[in-house]
Amino acid sequence: MKKIYDCVVIGAGVAGMTAAIYLKRANIDFILLEKGVPGGQINKSSNIENYPGFKKVDGPTLAFNIYEQIEKLGVDYKYGDVKEVRDSENYKVVCTDKEEFVTKTVIIATGRRPRELGLANEKKLLGSGISYCAYCDGMLYKNKDVIIIGGGNSALEEALYIADIANKVYIVHRSSEYRADQFLIDKVNKKENIIKYFNKEVIDILEQDDRFSGVKLNDESVINADGLFIYIGQIPETNFIDNIKTTEDGYIITDSHLKTSDDKIYACGDVLKKDLYQIATSIGEGALAASNIIKILK
Ligand SMILES: Cc1cc2nc3c(=O)[nH]c(=O)nc-3n(C[C@H](O)[C@H](O)[C@H](O)COP(=O)(O)OP(=O)(O)OC[C@H]3O[C@@H](n4cnc5c(N)ncnc54)[C@H](O)[C@@H]3O)c2cc1C
Question: Which CATH number describes the domain made up of 4-114+234-297?
């Protein structure tokens, strides 16, 4: 007979790993499934200055610290790309591309992924001059010119990071002002090699010899560059669920206990519809979802 878990946690970002710490310490029999690397989005952040306890830390270091903590606790962690969560009698079945896990409860902590521009050759040039992570790929552009699209915190934070590596950084933003923290805007304004374009949209991605070579803007002008980093927002990772309540744009709706419209499924972190998408909120929700799951299991 197939093993029945108390809980399956889907996603090992900061929310999922925090839930795992709480579940493990309460002696719950569960497995944590992750389709990428532990840490999720924080791996893309070069500089975190608003997470209490660390005056300044880079994302991968924070991710590794939390991962080490769950490893030391002996959390059952496995690679798995979850494709479906379905009902089977009184249980839930979590299906990855390779296996199925039968469980009494589920915590969804699958976060968000970068929104794409949706232009013709964007997918083709990913890894050939186009990236969604300056911190991961920035070093490839030492002394070269890069374009950042976006005007939020992530766009400015990563523009500042890459400005210390690249020759010139062009920030293209479609509005007349940034939607970012003032301290980031001030830092960007002080950087001499950051060139700002407001009220401009990219309408075409240009390529040469199968590599990104520049962008065409809506006023028909062209910016030539070696790299393009896209930060135009995020979308929730909820493709694999069709039986719980979400907003129109796919965010999971929960009550204040983080219970979804299904009594046996809880959710936490950036996958939720909420006001603030940050490490501190996601970690708090991971703890809350797990402690409420512990209550219903016991
Ligand atoms: C560039 C950047 C800079 C940032 N800077 C800051 C900052 O300075 N301070 C701050 O507080 N916040 C910052 N944030 C926001 C912060 O990183 C997020 O709010 C937080 O990491 C969200 O954590 P999470 O665990 O909810 O989701 P995620 O980090 O998105 O983790 C979700 C995990 O689930 C996995 N997953 C998704 N779908 C599946 C599936 N079907 N099967 C299995 N696994 C799946 C993903 O691979 C991922 O690892 C930044 C974000 C970015 C992108």
Answer: 3.50.50.60
- Kindly report, residue by residue over 196-213, the tens digit of the pLDDT: 999 999 999 999 999 999
Dist. CA 15 → ligand 1 center (Å):
8
Q: Is 152 in the pocket of ligand 1 (CB under 6 A)?
A: no
**Superfamily assignment of 130-230 in CATH?**
FAD/NAD(P)-binding domain (3.50.50.60)
Q: What's the token pair of residue 83?
A: 């494709």
Domain segments of the chain as ranges:
4-114+234-297, 130-230
- Model pTM score: 0.91
Helix (H) and strand (E) counts for the chain? Answer: 6, 17
pLDDT in tens, 269-279: 999 999 999 99
Q: How far is the CA of 8 from the centre of ligand 1 (A)?
A: 19
Q: Is there an atom of ligand 1 within 6 Å of 82 CB?
A: yes
User: Cβ distance 108 to 11 under 8 Å?
Assistant: yes
User: pLDDT digits over 157-189, tens only?
Assistant: 999 999 999 999 999 999 999 999 999 999 999
State the CB neighbour count (10 A cutoff) for residue 265. Answer: 24
